[in-house]
């Protein structure tokens, strides 16, 4: 087979990138003619711009990966192919040692005790609660508050820039940590991070945009049903098998959280009215976020990266995609000029990025240790706890429906833990019986 020369490969990638950029500009201008930039459906225009920005990165990378794998270019010697090997194999070394693969992660024979699992789960829960309670408050503040500059009052509208700031700070944190500490051998192809990176940035984008159309309690209410789409996406992405009690408790958690949120006084005056656009954006958030958690879980199982390695890889790809989209849309110029007019906006962005980065550490740790469904249950309960805390601190009314919802949620969690423990016991008994027969 004739190999594709490096110069030809580079020319094809650049040509694809330029062609994609030109087509994106044509589609963007056509979309501006069809969709009103100041109407309620203007978010569709922004979504199209975002997708086109990602495409200008995704298509050239696809050409690079496809041709490199087809002609085995990543197996060639020389410094010029190290980056290509990193993209395709997750490492710059030319030969993958079997000893490295086997020692990449601790053996599963070191089974944790129930106390150790409970303690680890408690740390993950606490970290997620603190990080994302703060993050939720700050993101609502940025997207809904009015910043004043003398007599001029304006709102920040570029959700993409907020996603970029969150991701680049998380990448810097994780990258510095990897440089300063000893980590397991990295064996995850970088291009595989791009799929959950795109879905992760789009879920964050939908979440920010939805706040322009629905109230924060309405957004929390929609998130309460996330356990079910996560399980359904798990069957599609990784062919996960769930037992009947897992489906039952997932439905109970969703029903309980819905009853609690509806009965917690979340429909007070001052909340924006839910619109069709808001509902579509919330559905988009649920779909993208469900895919993200399950894809990350699949990467943990297949390639076994550490939580920080996963965080660094995903955020590296997120920075690449969001920066390309912002450059194409002129978002950097708008956001920097807005920050120059409103210095308090810079502090809000930094605090949001810090809370998001710390939350990501706990997200990846939770998914790698307990899986995407347990992580989703923790985040679902967090939403209820945030509103319950608000009711206690500010003496909001909690109706009998809300109290019933709390009872249903904790009953479902107890049943899930009980049946999971019973299943493990039966599995151990079967293994012992089969072992004694041998």
From TrEMBL:
Record InterPro entries? SCL35B1-4/HUT1
This protein's source sits in the domain of life called: Eukaryota
Q: Where are the transmembrane segments?
A: 7-31, 43-65, 118-138, 161-180, 245-264, 270-288, 308-327, 333-354, 401-419
How does the UniProt record describe the way this protein sits in the membrane?
Multi-pass membrane protein
This protein's major location comes to membrane
Localization per record: Membrane
Q: Which UniProt keywords apply?
A: Membrane, Transmembrane, Transmembrane helix, Transport
GO CC terms, sorted: endoplasmic reticulum membrane; Golgi membrane
Q: Which GO terms describe its molecular function?
A: 3'-phosphoadenosine 5'-phosphosulfate transmembrane transporter activity
Identify its protein family: Belongs to the nucleotide-sugar transporter family. SLC35B subfamily.
Q: Give the matching PANTHER family.
A: ADENOSINE 3'-PHOSPHO 5'-PHOSPHOSULFATE TRANSPORTER 1, SOLUTE CARRIER FAMILY 35 MEMBER B
Q: What is this protein called?
A: Adenosine 3'-phospho 5'-phosphosulfate transporter 1
What is the scientific name of the source organism? Daphnia carinata
**Gene from which the chain derives:** EOG090X05CU
